[in-house]
Design brief:
zinc, SWIM-type domain-containing protein, zinc ion binding, 10 strands, six-stranded mixed sheet, two-stranded antiparallel ribbon, Znf_SWIM, mainly alpha, ZSWIM4-8_C, about 1100 residues
Length: about 1100
């Protein structure tokens, strides 16, 4: 509502003195009270008022209600006050007062409904869990106390309501809003008009804009309902004016103008001018308006609803598009519509019309139409597209148009909904469409969603008993159909199973259907379990239950006339839920439709989980589980199902946990049957093309477009995990569950999760490890390894490490087994760097308590694995193989030979240098030298690669050769000269070789002479010449593209070159010639050459 501070609109009623023409009210008033009189406390005695409002507990002594109050209450509910005045010539004032008194609403339920989204409705579907938020920021879903209704109660209880006055059909008062930390105390003026027990208009000076009433309106309304004897009641103001003479009227008007002259003086003068003008419009009308006189005959009697605010709020939500909360808020509005309809409030239909008009007026529709985008692609989160018939393109609009043709005139339907005693025990027609079953109880054959929509319509419009009767007839019909289907399948079972026929029997699933047929039946029956319709309207119960529907206990209430002995509404509700959840139905097309199937299934199961199972309900579960297993194509758990049938994993998990304490064999049989996921099988069963064309999958694709497949697979995994947990300690069941997992689960990540779950369950701290469950865990882990061996998986290293841990827990034979079969499980790198390394670690030996013989056997397997991996992938495994084989001479030599064989073809210089350094570290310098020379043959450093990562390796290799002796250095220098063209690297090597004597200890322990090597002889002469040549080539290369900002750097480079030149006996001459050549060739670079001359002459 938009509560604004302006005055209410002029009243429609025109009131005048008797005898002033045809427009006047006939008759006079009896028992006048004098000028300004008539003030009277509104209510009768407190006890009578409390009794009338139904607030006294049963059995408490109270005075009988007077005939006047009984009659006045009924008239106040049904008749507009103008009709009362026209019907009776003389109306005694006491009668007027009682009618005016009883015309104010008496129930707080409607006040609550119009001031919050959550009214404690007994229908969970009408008020979603947590749906306590009003749009426009009027309430917070997380804080019920911020609801306007709750805040209004708090204001009332806090004594914030004052100056309450009822004049005729108008209530006014002030409500003080206490001071807050950031806001001062404010006083709000509230005015309420009412008629026939409905509030017809409200105004509040708080200026709050919202769809529903503010807390101040709530506080004043509840004050009038709860404390009627403290409200001063006056007759309509026109009645008081009738009793005044001319002098009194003039005094009244002048005092009124004096008190409010700033507000009303312009209006008063304008009215006076018009009245004094003979031809004014105001003088053409008999009587004058009275805002306190009640409704006229033509006025519509409905609760106040600010239509403009409804439109604005819906428009706001639509403009927010897909932002968080907008869809939820719209759904709350729809829930409010249902709540109003259930209360038989005409505003429900009006509000639905307003919402729909805003949808249709959305400017984006025209844009989407131009873009060729169907509206349902954008709005299907609020309006489902119903692909539920054999005709394509059937939408919610066509469904709505068809609903207009539905009628309620069928005599059989009328009898069903109107009487609990409608039976026919002599009816013996056993045909498919018989009107009664074998018990003589009525059946209702109609398209199930449509039939359930009738139940929903009855509930929504406030006919709970009629809805319950029809719901029972529908459930009895479904149960009878279920039995018939089982008989048909048993008769044809052998033929159907032989052919492998998988045709679907119901293309339109009931769970996830836009009309929610199963949810409707379930809710209707569950309401009957917890609500006594006769006492439901007691508001005290309503207040206690507000927002606490989940805490209610469901009971087996006395049986209905058309239920078998021992049955109750509760058993019917549970059974129809199980029937719907177990129905085989095709997966619908489209993301939203598929999400809705999953969501509705989980919501229904969540409601079932609130019910505590007793022996009666366990029998229902057993009965339905057996039917689901034996009903063939009619059941989602039948032996052969359609490839694109909706999976039963979530439902089967619930069945399994429910049945397990009572019938473990049936529980496992049901869960194991549900494990399949045929849509992921590589080949579809025969008969798969029986699906009608309009819902067929895209043929070229291997899999249909199941947008919720990841969720479905996770539910399949949850079902398997639940069975593994339950089967702990039972070898036979664990083997069966393992076989089912390996057959039906196709996702490596989910199998890995199951393996981890099984491992955790098997190794709980408070008990000894379950070896069978550990083996299951290991087997699943091995399957994951095989599945992910040839595919990329970011969790692969984690999986490998976990598998080794699991195998360690199982025992030494498991570790030996995975190493013997490593090539089917691991890459060579994984096998050496993770598996073998972990197996040979001290922690593994300690964990397994291995003796020396077992250690050696395990180490032998690890070495064999390492050598095999090195042969297959020497680049990545050779070093690991050498490390693992260190303690076995033969294995180590074999690994070294593998490296030498691969060095010429399969390994790069970086890998060879790494292994060479390892060899030196382990005390094999000659082998390190051999590998270093092989690495040098693969290396190529150009003139400008002076920061190459291999430079350190080259320097190390030269240092190693130098330390071994002159011969080794002489052998490697030609390789260096061939591979390295970078002048700075070569000069660095040259200087290092001239600083120390090569090889203090040569080969075979022979001591060297200790003399420094000469630069004029090989091998250093070759290195010196190569270094000088590299400097010359690098200089010319750099001068080709040099820029002025690099001049100083270039001069420093020439200085280093001069140092190298001077190491030769004729170096000074060579460098001078070199500089002169530069000056001649690059004389165009005058500034640079000037710098060269300044430094080098």
């Amino acid at each position: 509502m938009a509560e604004r501070g302006q005055l209410p609109p002029p009243a429609k009623r025109l009131c005048c003195r008797p005898g002033y023409g045809s427009g006047c009210r006939p008759g006079g008033r009896a028992g006048g009270a004098g000028p300004g009189g008539g003030a009277l406390c509104a209510g009768p005695s407190s006890a009578a008022a409390a009794a009338a409002l139904g607030l006294l507990p049963l059995g408490k002594t109270q005075s009988p209600e007077s005939l006047l109050d009984i009659a006045a209450r009924k008239v106040a509910e049904k008749w507009p006050f103008q009709r009362v005045e026209e019907r009776f010539e003389r109306i005694p004032e006491p009668v007027q007062r009682r009618i005016v008194y009883w015309s104010f609403p008496r129930s707080e339920r409607e006040i609550c409904m119009y001031s919050s989204f959550n009214t404690g409705s007994e229908d969970p579907a009408a008020a979603p869990v947590g749906a306590a938020a009003a749009p426009g920021g009027a309430a917070d879903a997380a804080d019920e106390n911020r609801l306007p209704f709750r805040r209004g109660i708090a204001l009332l209880d806090g004594g914030c309501v004052d100056n309450v006055l009822q004049v005729g059909f108008h209530l006014s008062g002030t409500v003080t809003e206490p001071a807050m930390q950031s806001e001062p105390e404010t006083v709000c003026n509230v005015a309420i008009s009412f008629d026939r027990c409905k509030i017809t208009s409200v105004t509040c000076s708080c200026g709050n804009k919202d769809i529903f009433y503010c807390a101040h309106v709530v506080a004043l309304s509840l004050y009038r309902i709860r404390k009627p004897d403290q409200v001063k009641l006056h007759l309509p103001i026109s009645e008081t004016l009738f009793q005044m003479n001319r002098d009194q009227l003039q005094k009244f008007v002048q005092y009124l103008i004096t008190v409010h002259h700033t507000e009303v003086l312009p209006t008063a003068q304008k009215l006076a001018d018009e009245i004094l003008s003979q031809n004014s419009e105001i003088n053409q009308v008999h009587g004058a308006p009275d805002p306190t006189a009640g409704a006229s005959i033509d006025d519509e009697n409905c609760w106040h609803l600010d239509e403009e605010q409804v439109q604005e709020q819906v428009k706001l939500f639509l403009s927010q598009g897909g932002y968080h909360g907008s869809g939820k808020q719209l759904n709350l509005l729809f829930a409010k519509v249902r709540e109003m309809l259930k209360m038989r409030d005409s505003n429900g239909a009006r509000m639905l019309t307003l919402i729909t008009e805003q949808f249709m007026a959305d400017p984006r529709l025209a844009l989407w139409r131009q873009q060729g985008t169907t509206m349902t692609d954008k709005y299907r989160q609020l309006w489902d597209e119903l692909d539920s018939s054999n005709r394509p393109h059937r939408t919610v609009f066509t469904r709505a148009i068809e609903a207009c043709d539905l009628h309620w005139q069928d005599s059989h339907l009328q009898h069903i909904i109107s009487s609990d005693l409608y039976t026919n025990y002599c009816y013996h027609d056993d045909s498919e469409n018989s009107l009664f079953d074998s018990h003589g109880w009525p059946l209702w054959h109609e398209h199930v969603p449509t039939a359930c929509a009738r139940v929903d319509a009855l509930r929504s419009h406030g006919y709970p008993r009629e809805a319950l009767r029809l719901a029972i007839a529908i459930v009895n019909t479904l149960r009878r159909q279920q039995q018939k289907q089982l008989e048909v399948f048993r008769a044809q079972k052998k033929e159907l199973l032989h052919k492998g026929v998988t045709s679907i029997t119901n293309l339109e699933g009931w769970v996830g259907h836009p009309l929610d047929p199963v949810g409707t039946l379930f809710s209707s029956l569950m309401e009957a379990c917890r609500v006594d319709d006769e006492s439901f309207h007691g508001f005290s119960d309503f207040m206690e239950n507000m927002g606490q529907c989940k805490s209610l206990e469901y009971q087996h209430l006395p049986a209905h006339k058309v239920l078998e002995e021992g049955e109750s509404y509760l058993t019917l509700a549970v059974e129809v839920a199980l029937i719907g959840l177990g129905q085989q139905r095709i997966m619908p097309d489209g993301l939203y439709a598929q999400e809705k199937v999953c969501r509705n299934e989980e919501q229904l199961i969540s409601k079932l989980q609130e019910i505590e199972l007793d022996d009666t309900l366990v029998k229902i579960f057993r009965k339905q589980a057996v039917f689901l297993l034996e009903a063939g194509p009619y059941s989602g758990l039948g032996e052969v199902i359609h490839r694109e049938s909706v999976p039963m994993h979530t439902f089967a998990k619930y069945l399994f946990t429910s049945l397990l304490p009572h019938d473990a064999e049936l529980a496992y049989k049901t869960a194991l049957r549900a494990m399949r996921l045929l849509v992921l099988e590589s080949t579809a069963p025969s008969g798969d093309m029986s699906r009608p064309h309009h819902i067929a999958s895209v043929v070229p694709n291997r899999y249909p477009r199941w947008f919720t497949l990841s969720h479905i697979e996770s539910q399949q995994c949850e079902l398997a995990s639940t069975m593994l947990t339950a089967a702990k300690g039972d070898v036979r069941r664990l083997e069966t569950v393992l076989e089912s997992i390996q057959k039906n689960i196709h996702s490596s990540s989910h199998i890995f999760k199951l393996a981890q779950d099984a491992f955790k369950i098997a190794t709980l701290m408070d008990s000894l490890p379950d070896i069978t469950l550990l083996k299951v865990s290991l087997e699943l882990g091995l399957q994951v390894m095989r599945m992910t061996l040839s595919t990329l998986n970011w969790r692969r290293r984690e999986m490998v490490r976990w598998l080794v841990t699991c195998a360690t827990e199982v025992g030494v034979y498991a570790l030996d087994s995975i190493m013997q079969n490593w090539f089917t499980l691991f890459t060579p790198t994984e096998a050496t760097s993770i598996v073998a390394t972990t197996v040979m670690s001290n922690s593994t030996i300690v964990r397994l308590h291995l003796d020396c013989h077992q250690q050696e056997k395990l180490a032998s397997s690890a070495r064999t694995l390492a050598l095999q991996c090195a042969m297959k992938d020497p680049q990545n495994c050779a070093l690991s193989a050498l490390t693992l084989c260190e303690k076995d001479h033969i294995a180590f030599e074999t690994a070294y030979q593998i490296v030498l064989d691969a060095a010429t073809t399969g390994m790069n210089y970086s890998q060879l240098f790494t292994i060479a350094r390892y060899m030196e570290h382990r005390g094999y310098p000659m082998r390190a030298y051999k590998l270093a020379t092989l690495a040098m043959t693969h290396l190529n450093l150009s003139y400008n690669q002076d920061t190459h990562p291999a430079i350190n390796d080259v320097l190390w290799a030269c240092a190693l050769s130098h330390s071994l002796g002159k011969n080794e250095l002489a052998a490697i220098i030609p390789l260096v000269v061939k591979s390295v063209k970078c002048a700075t690297v070569l000069s660095d090597i040259l200087r290092r070789c001239t600083l120390t004597t090569p090889g203090m200890v040569g080969l075979h322990g022979r001591r060297n002479s200790g003399k420094l090597m000469s630069l004029d002889k090989a091998p250093l002469r070759q290195l010196l010449d190569a270094t000088i040549g590299a400097y010359i080539n690098t200089t010319h290369s750099r001068l080709t593209h040099i820029s002025p900002r690099h001049y100083s750097e270039f001069i420093e480079f020439l200085s280093k070159a001069r140092e190298t030149f001077l190491m030769a006996h004729d170096g000074h001459i060579q460098f001078t010639q070199f500089i002169d050549n530069l000056k001649q060739i690059y004389k165009g670079k005058k500034k640079l050459m000037m710098l060269v001359r300044e430094r080098f002459g």
